[in-house]
Design a protein that fits this description.
4-stranded parallel sheet, alpha/beta, single chain, 10 helices
Length: 205
Amino acid sequence: MFENIYEALISDKAVAVIRTNTYEEAKEISLSAIEGGIKIIEVTMTVPNGAKLIKELKEMQKDIMVGAGTVLKVEQLKECVENNADFIVSPCLDEEIVKGATYLNALVIPGVMTISELNKAYFMGLRFVKVFPGNVVGKEFIKAAKSIYSDINIMPTGGVSDSNFSEWLEAGADCFGIGSDLNKIFKNEGSNGVINYCKNLKARI
């Protein structure tokens, strides 16, 4: 059912995770990342009117996927689905979010940080999970997880950067989310900095 989204995540590898305090900054960083070659955007629900931004980005850019991140409540889930989010990401394994997404026919990627959580997600029928926070859990977790659950896809977020993403991929990650780097670059170098950062990143994947 969600094969095309799985394929896009695995093929493109890099997901731009947008987490800012203003709608305007979130939109500008998103568009700059897209111009730099990123085709998958995750707008977190910490962005003011984040669901609205998902819809706006999808209307502006037809050849990209835009998902919703940091979805903590069923109400947020419904709003994101109504605004055409391609996928739903949560920072933890929340059964209500998983059930709600299943009911709404939306792909959900929950966050896990232990084998027990991963096992629970697996037997709930989920085949794509987020490892979060990546810098706390560590790359070795992915190697261990893949040795047990060979058919699950893993996306680390948190602590992944342009300087270490290849290490995560070598450890078995299928794709990865980059967020804080984009904010730092935007703050210091503006939109052009984000564009160049993303171009350089994509060139090395």
